[in-house]
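Re: the 123-residue chain
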Amino acid sequence: MWDKYTVLIAEDEDVNFFLLSEYLEPTGIKVLRAKNGAEVLEIVSHEEPHVILMDIKMPVMNGYEATHKLREINPNIPVLAQTAYTMSEDFERLKATKFQEILAKPINEQDLLFTLRKYIKED
């Protein structure tokens, strides 16, 4: 279905990464992984993912910092925040960072696929 597309999942927790990968496997989309924001920037320097699922709380460089730097490198890649931070002040900071979408953890399969469908343009 989406075998021509690539998603980069920035997620330091193995359980969360494997769950998202399981949800995406039936779509055929290529899945890349970064365990921190610095790895996101490294991967984007040589790959061009169609969408990035960005965890907010990660070691080395968090999702806010990585997204700010990514916007300087390539402002056109949709970045979807995935976070357990759901307080109103957290949402304000997420909006200010200009994520295209905010997915609250735990993310369910239907929400993930529905949201990705907005950014993956099928032929």
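Residues 14-24 form the longest helix (11 residues).
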